[in-house]
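User: Predict the structure for this protein chain, please.
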Amino acid sequence: MSEITNNTRPPMLLSLGPVQYFWPRDTLYDFYEEIVDSAVDIVYLGENVCSKRRQFRSKDWQSVAQKLTAAGKQVVLSSLALIEAESELSQVRQLCRQDTYLVEANDMAAVRLRHGRPFVGGAGLNIYNSRSLQKLTEFGMLRWLMPLELSQDTLRELQTQRPQGIETVVFVFGRLPLAHSARCFTARARDLPKDDCQFSCLDYPDGLLMHTREQQPFLTLNGIQVQSAQTYNLLDALPALVDAGVDILRLSPQSRHMTKVIDIFDNARHGKESAQKDITALEALLPTGSCDGYW
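Assistant: Here is the predicted structure, written as structure tokens:
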């Protein structure tokens, strides 16, 4: 990773996305206690998959946000990716009304509610071209996450056209959120209706892995969300991300070894370890191997 340290730009920032899975309250608290002392610079908090996941209340998120802020992290609050009911829209309104923390808009409703005030553009906004970047910047967007289905060639093209002062974030680690649906796939797998899901997601801290008939990992079910089976991993692409002018790397939490994952990416962005040593160490921490998605 020597290419990173030789570049005149400062090291890219590390960000941690919101936990996409449904973890018990104490587990989530313990997780963020570890993150307080980690090397990440930015932490995204909140439930962005399913509004029924309520073990963590507003006061809990507030407590975690205060601890992370005191530790020097920037806290960003993430909105739901799929809004289906007035109660969920009400939650998004409440989130977007506050200005203590920056908001990540994962739906155009959140963009509308933040209009004229700063926000982060999440992957759900489908920012595929420079016109979208420009228009959302006019609305108040100051940072955007490249949609997960775009390639490195598209990234380079958009980087040459992005508005001045806009930060670019690239998702570099975690299972890829591929789709959201009005139905709950985890409940359906247990022959349960969505309205009586019995919080089945609690039994799958990294989602419910699906296999093909040949017993190959295929997809991961996470409530109303479908993810990749393998973990998206762009560790070996860090030099290319530097060359493309990316500002922030985004890691998505998994239930085990997350602080070790953070340390590996932190070492890599500072050029402290050899590329092959980092890649080998990271592969050993992944539940079903890695992929580079659409990169």
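The longest strand covers residues 167-180.
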